């Protein structure tokens, strides 16, 4: 029998960074994100050998471990070992061997919530194997707890919840890990227009988001006023984006994104760089009304809002840079799992 899962990556449309502790506990965070048709995949196959095999298609790595004990993490499989160890402590795992294979449709560290989405996909395929009835909030919080508290990987909360719930969501974050996910019912004509006008562009640069996140956290702890004020403004940006999408005010989407682009740069020094600024200005000059560095910043994907028929001029203008565009559609569903004989 084979067990499979897939979890969608997300575009953070507004408010990104306010979901990161300690800001979210001190002031309350708010983000608006949407899942897209790019996925993290996980497959478990039962095998005759009495061992556990982890296989990463993206990293071209494979490692094997003995059954029946806590695993020592090895290079490339920190997430897989951490997830297995948590489940080993809390559940009765099968006595037979198995092979866990993972892959992602986009590069790791590209700003679409890749590592957190992969954690959600892996937890979901284990839940399919072990018949664990996780609710959406339970699954997302477990993914967050493993990644942030047990493995000590820096980051926010929105990615685990976006991958689990799917669709367009306005999310609120408060102290004591209190998270509220508000699904948005946006009219289809507004979604079609948004999808038509957004261009997703990979800068061909990957980055280590943890350094950016740590600087952002340090700025809050040290009460750096301009950084904290920028986060306040980004929280307000998420409310403006929610209202614009629900009311079909498509003419202000670019302006809201452009406002967020400039506020986000104030949260931490590594969020932007001359290469990102050059790409952004090229897109704006060609007709983009606004845009965003996806995720923590520093590289990875960017996206641009191109009203009317400006998308074609923006595509042509960015040809001089070394990146590429990635087609996508918005998706309604979060992580899913299934089994086949």
Describe this structure in words.
By secondary structure, the chain is of the alpha+beta class. The chain is built from eleven helices and twelve strands. Strands 1, 2, 3, 4, 5, 6, 7 and 12 form an eight-stranded mixed beta sheet that branches. A four-stranded antiparallel beta sheet has the order 9-10-8-11. A hairpin with a 4-residue loop joins strand 3 and strand 4 (61-66). The chain is globular, with a radius of gyration of 20 Å. The mean pLDDT is 95.
In short:
Helices cover 40% and strands 25% of the residues. By secondary structure, it is an alpha+beta fold.
Index terms:
25% strand, 4-stranded antiparallel sheet, alpha+beta, 341 residues, 8-stranded mixed sheet
Topology:
Elements: E1 2-14, H1 23-27, E2 29-47, E3 51-56, E4 61-66, H2 78-90, E5 97-104, H3 114-130, H4 136-150, H5 158-165, E6 168-174, E7 178-183, H6 188-197, E8 198-202, H7 209-221, H8 225-247, H9 253-264, H10 274-286, E9 290-293, E10 301-305, H11 311-317, E11 324-325, E12 336-340
Parallel strand pairs: 3-5
Antiparallel strand pairs: 1-2, 1-12, 2-5, 2-6, 3-4, 6-7, 8-10, 8-11, 9-10
Helix pairs in contact: 2-4, 3-4, 3-5, 4-5, 8-9, 10-11
């Amino acid at each position: 029998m084979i067990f499979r899962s897939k979890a969608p990556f997300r575009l953070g449309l507004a408010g990104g960074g306010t979901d990161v502790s300690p800001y979210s506990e001190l002031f309350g965070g708010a983000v608006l994100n949407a899942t897209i048709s790019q996925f993290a995949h996980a497959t478990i196959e039962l095998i005759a050998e009495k061992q556990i095999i982890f296989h990463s298609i993206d990293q071209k790595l494979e490692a094997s471990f003995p059954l029946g004990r806590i695993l020592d993490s090895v290079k490339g499989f920190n997430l897989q070992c951490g997830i297995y160890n948590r489940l080993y402590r809390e559940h009765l795992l099968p006595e037979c061997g198995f092979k866990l294979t993972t892959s992602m449709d986009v590069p790791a560290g590209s700003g679409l919530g890749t590592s957190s989405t992969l954690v959600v996909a892996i937890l979901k395929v284990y839940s399919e194997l072990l018949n664990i009835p996780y609710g959406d909030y339970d699954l997302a919080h477990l993914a967050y707890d493993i990644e942030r508290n047990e493995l000590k990987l820096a980051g926010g909360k929105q990615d685990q919840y976006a991958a689990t719930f799917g669709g367009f969501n306005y999310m609120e974050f408060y102290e004591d890990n209190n998270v509220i996910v508000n699904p948005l019912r946006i009219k289809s004509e507004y979604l079609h227009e948004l999808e038509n006008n957004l261009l997703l562009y990979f800068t061909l640069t990957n980055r280590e988001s943890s350094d950016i996140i740590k600087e952002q956290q340090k700025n809050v702890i040290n009460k750096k006023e301009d950084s904290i004020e920028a986060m306040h403004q980004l929280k307000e940006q998420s409310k403006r984006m929610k209202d614009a999408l629900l009311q079909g005010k498509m003419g202000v989407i670019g302006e809201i994104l452009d406002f967020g682009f400039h506020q986000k740069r104030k949260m931490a020094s590594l969020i932007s760089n001359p290469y990102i600024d050059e790409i952004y200005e090229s897109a704006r000059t060609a007709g983009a009304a606004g845009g965003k560095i996806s995720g923590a910043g520093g590289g990875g994907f960017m996206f641009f809002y191109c009203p009317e028929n400006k998308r074609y001029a923006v595509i042509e203008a960015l040809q001089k840079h070394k990146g590429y565009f990635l087609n996508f559609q918005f998706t309604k569903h979060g992580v899913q799992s299934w089994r086949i004989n």
